[in-house]
Write a structure and sequence with these properties.
Mean pLDDT: 85
Low-confidence stretches: none
Strand content: 15-25%
Number of domains: 2
Helix content: 40-55%
Radius of gyration: 21 Å
Shape: globular
CATH architecture of the largest domain: 3-Layer(aba) Sandwich
């Protein structure tokens, strides 16, 4: 009974603490028409300290959505356009010789900010992409012999065009795995596009108000961790992730030859954290199976390695995740 009372208290507290989510949605909605899933995904990344990778054809407001989110928070924002000739030093900074002082001084790069918009991240070769790895995982940057801790919150929000397009480089698996979510965007509906046209033809393009500061985000992240997750939900998350590794054990033997590798423990952690953040966004103090299912595709789609057999049969990681969700027993 005491646990029930605690959950009720927690639920009431989280309803109160998550009130800013509605404000954030209103401010984002001033600029971004439709794309509800995109806005939710950016909020999940923000609240659970996870980097977000957005994929879609040019012109779907990927960059605008990220910039708008940064504008609602009084924090430092950097936009880095990834190009084939970009160098790691252009990203993290370098040592510059000062003739006046007769010594090398550190010139910090654009990565020293709270929000990093890595635009068209797959336009640059692996050397530049890997320069982001230390920053994304360790939240620090090494220039010369010195290591610098990055400001909190630190969030990389990257966009990429579909790999089939010319002049793109597939991201290394190690880097893709550092992204908590990979969100694939589709075209807006006809009515939404009509509103987009009207908005862009208006006299002044709407701008969001700043409603949060970095301290608010750090506080919200701590509260997200307090969202209650039952052991049954933990087992459900483990079953889903393990089904990507050993599909035959979960009644899916047809996928055995189609998966080269499944989700790592990082996938399990990300799925649990994203589920808690989703519950928080829905202003609930506890996680339900629908929360796990809502974030599952975005957390796992980039963590399943497909074999040639799967590609030959046109089976995607999304197909596999959907089948797993339909097969694994829901608590």
């Amino acid at each position: 009974m005491s646990e029930l009372v605690n959950i009720k208290e927690l639920n009431d507290r989280i309803q109160q603490e998550s009130s800013f989510v509605d404000l954030l949605n209103i401010e984002m909605g001033k600029v971004i028409v439709g794309q509800k899933h995109l806005v939710e995904s950016l909020l999940i990344g923000l609240l659970s300290d996870g980097h977000v990778l957005l994929e879609g054809v040019p012109g779907l407001a990927k960059t605008l959505a990220i910039k708008t989110l940064a504008d609602t928070i009084d924090a430092r924002f950097s936009r880095i356009q990834f190009t084939p000739d970009l160098l790691p030093a252009d990203l993290i900074g370098t040592m510059v010789y000062s003739p006046k002082n007769e010594e090398f001084i550190v010139k910090k790069g654009p990565i020293f900010a709270n929000f990093i918009l890595a635009d068209e991240i797959n336009r640059s070769p692996a050397k530049v992409q890997s320069a982001l790895l230390e920053a994304m995982q360790e939240k620090q940057v090494t220039i010369g012999v010195n290591t610098y801790t990055l400001e909190k919150p630190f969030l990389v929000l990257a966009t990429q065009n579909p790999i089939e397009q010319e002049g793109t480089y597939p991201l290394p698996e190690a880097q893709v795995d550092r992204f908590m979510l990979k969100v694939v965007l589709d075209y807006p509906k006809k009515e939404e596009e009509r509103l987009i046209i009207r908005q862009n033809l208006g006299k002044a393009f709407p701008t969001p108000n700043r409603i949060l500061n970095p301290a608010d985000i750090m506080r919200a992240r701590e509260i997200v961790k307090e969202v209650y997750m039952d052991e049954k939900i933990e087992k459900y998350i483990l079953d889903i992730v393990f089904a990507t590794r050993y599909p035959a054990e979960y009644g899916l033997p047809k996928f055995t030859g189609m998966i080269n590798y499944g989700g790592s423990p990082r996938a399990s952690i990300s799925l649990a954290l994203a589920s808690k953040a989703y519950a928080f966004i829905k202003r609930r103090g506890y996680v339900i199976p629908e929360d796990v299912r809502a974030v599952c595709h975005d957390v796992l789609r980039h963590r399943i390695g497909l074999s040639y057999e799967a590609e030959a049969e046109n089976i995607t990681s999304v197909d596999i995740i959907t089948e797993i969700l339909n097969t694994v027993e829901v608590p």
